[in-house]
Amino acid sequence: MTAFPRLRRPEVLAYAAGSFGTGVFSTVPTVLLLYFCTEVLRIAPGWAAALVFLPKVWAIVWDPFVGAWSDRTAGPLGRRRPFLIAGAVGVAVAFVAVFTPPSIGAVGLLAWTAASYFALATLYSLFAVPYVAIPAEIGQDAAERSRLVSWRMAVAMIGVMAGAGVAPLVVEAAGGGRAGYAVMSLTIAAVCALAMTGPVLMLRHRDIALPRPTGPQPSLWSQLGRAFRHQRFRRLALAYVIQLCAVGAVSAAIPYLVIKAFGRSEGDIGLAMLAMLGATTLAVPVWSWIGRRIGETRALGMAVVAFALSAGGLGWAAHTHLAWAAALPLFAFAGLPFAGMQVLPYTLVADLIHAEAHDSGDEGVFTGVWTATEKLGLALGPALVGLALNLVHGRIDGLAKLAAVAPGVLALASLPFLFAAARGAAPLQPKAAA
After folding, report:
1. Tally of structural domains, the chain
2. Which residue ranges does UniProt annotate as crossing the membrane (predicted)?
3. How far apart are CA 148 and CA 132, in angstroms?
């Protein structure tokens, strides 16, 4: 692999800027799409849950393919920038399409929204997979990779905060309903597309395609198999899926809890998410420091336990219809461990990928599998909320009871896989040439 010079602060910030877009584009559908489908478009909850979930299942296949495709790309723009450019433009267009459906019948609305969201998920991968691979590729040591990941996650939290907190406020300010969601989508798409040009510019002198090998090349399936056979990587990915399923369930339940349990407006969804994600943004560097002090695995275990407790507190507050002023601090408390569940897994996996795939140039394959697990986890959460709404026949008390228990149990269920991954710390050695 090419040895790059040390990263300067402007380069780190330019790289991190792209995560504002990924944070927004991944969060708004997680928080608002299920609610938009069921309450604004009047799509049945079961169909809406399928609409949210199925495109993420597609990512299980698509993301690793994008990673391998990017690894093998050779051209004047390098092997990452063509994907970053196509993804940044395409995802902005698809995002607007999701929230601006035409006035057609119920079946047409379902088809339009499903197709648009499928396109959004597909195009998002073109940007996100090579983008996430960059620290493992150009970071010279663990400290530099941690620096890139920490800055990326800090800016991503600002994007998540904008997507989850500011987006509902824009919807309300624009009058709510279809018109409000249309204004929100246009505003957010323009800002995010601009932010996502940062890593493209940063890579001008660092995005170098690897020389094409002269001998036989491994097939895509053998590259993917290498990632899936890596026991530590597999266990870490499984733990991450379960954790994000819990996070996605809490995020998707918040609009229903805020409006129907606490009796607030759509704008207060934004206040709740701002309280949660503001705390998350502030806590990212703290969790990075804790990870360096006691080890990322132990720190992540602490974050998971704290998240389980805070999710239970939110569900209890909704079930007892706690006063809004008393409930808001509980949202902020939930944001503190969420920061650890964001930055620490990415630090762990960046070091693992660098050790396993740096010499072979397969960072994109491993990253593609990882981002596929991320999307799957975030999709499972809202899908579970949609199924829960069917199970309790839309009754908010029933949803609040489930919210008090299910996310915490899910989060804790990830711990055996997380600690098992820590025990298998030695990377898989490449096979000797025949």
Report:
1. 1
2. 12-36, 42-62, 83-104, 110-133, 154-175, 181-203, 236-257, 269-287, 299-318, 376-396, 402-422
3. 10
Instruction: Specify if 221 maps to a domain.
Output: no
Distance CA 69, CA 83 (A): 10
- pLDDT computed for residue 362 by the predictor: 64
- 427: exposed, middle or buried (C-beta count within 10 Å: 0-12, 13-18, 19+)? middle
CATH of the domain at 286: 1.20.1250.20
- Please tell me the distance from the alpha carbon of residue 51 to that of residue 392, in angstroms, as a whole number: 20
pLDDT digits (tens, 9 = 90+) for 82-123: 899 999 999 999 999 999 999 888 899 999 999 999 999 999
What percentage of the chain exceeds 70 in pLDDT? Answer: 87
Residue-wise pLDDT tens digits, 239-295? 999 999 998 888 888 888 888 888 888 778 888 888 988 898 889 889 988 988 898
Residue 46 lies inside a defined structural domain of this protein: yes
Of 37, 60, 59, 174, residue with least CA distance to 112: 37
State pTM to two decimals.
0.72
Cβ neighbours around 347 below 10 Å, total: 24
- The parent domain of residue 291 ranges over 9-207+227-423
* Any domain includes 214: no
Task: Give the DSSP letter string of 204-269.
Answer: GGT--PPPPPSSPPPPHHHHHHHHHH-HHHHHHHHHHHHHHHHHHHHHHHHHHIIIIIS---HHHH
> Do the domain assignments include residue 1?
no
Residue whose structure tokens are 């607007």: 96
* Angle at the Cα of 236 from the Cα atoms of 230 and 238, rounded to 5 degrees: 100
